């Protein structure tokens, strides 16, 4: 399916991740080797299923943040940032495996999901295995604050998943309630990933808090753009079907805004499709039309920019340099991206 609604007017000149990726390139090679080695098991299905998702071309943005923030904070006394970054990626991968089961998704990053290839049970259990490996690596690193940060993030993420499940098909979900969901489901791991860079470098609570704020607000911006792209992107770029959120009955911010701003007939449409699950041919296109009518996608992007600005302000504590500049450029990328 092609583009449903253009967001070109809501976009800035195209930024990218290249400045950040260039800075972490050497450590990322070590990270990738560690990830692949820790995904191994004498149980044959585990590495097959894990590698299917791990090798599927994700941005690896969360572990990149851990490595880049550690470098910015001057960490040069060892390699503990590598297993911490790997633990972050394993936690993220585990949530993707679990999400695809809950959402009954068929595609992930342009590939058939693990649950389709190996079944729901295997996907859940391999996700649990990766979580176990993540915590083993944290214990081996031996930094109690790092273990506490990631354990807390794991609990918050699980809460966010349950909150999202409870909000599914609920047209009375408010914007504040939805923001609470994505704060838990997405932003918590971004915040943890960034803060770990300061922790491994032995920085103060002030610096830890700054990077935690940066990661949290970057994560909120990232998810809000995801929400908009589900109705405005393309299958080829997204690596998944456009409109998956709509078909799965997910209440995201564009839906919340469109429903609140709609008239009685429009609200009946949203209740039929999302609350009652009665989706018919042409409904996705109508949903996109209503979002355009009520500026729901544009305003979702505006909110993403707002959180991006907060993330940018959080970086003011750190001295200017190539790492700081690249981390700020990453904010621009997350807000302006098309996939």
CATH superfamily: Farnesyl Diphosphate Synthase
List the secondary-structure elements in sequence, H or E: HHHHEEHHHHHHHHHHHH
- Total beta-strand segments: 2
3D shape: globular
Strand line-up in the sheet with most strands = 1-2
Low-pLDDT runs of 5+ residues are 1-13
The percentage of residues in β strands lies in under 5%
Mean pLDDT: 91
Please bin the fraction of helical residues: over 70%
Measured between the Cα atoms of the first and last residue, the distance is 15 Å
Question: What is the radius of gyration?
Answer: 20 Å
How does the major sheet shape up? 2 strands, antiparallel
Instruction: Name the structural class.
Output: mainly alpha
Domain module tally: 1
Topology-level CATH name: Farnesyl Diphosphate Synthase
Quickly give the CATH architecture. Orthogonal Bundle
Multimeric organization: single chain
SSE topology sketch:
Layout: H1 18-38, H2 45-54, H3 61-72, H4 81-103, E1 107-108, E2 111-112, H5 114-118, H6 120-141, H7 144-167, H8 175-200, H9 205-232, H10 235-238, H11 244-247, H12 253-261, H13 264-275, H14 283-293, H15 296-314, H16 322-336
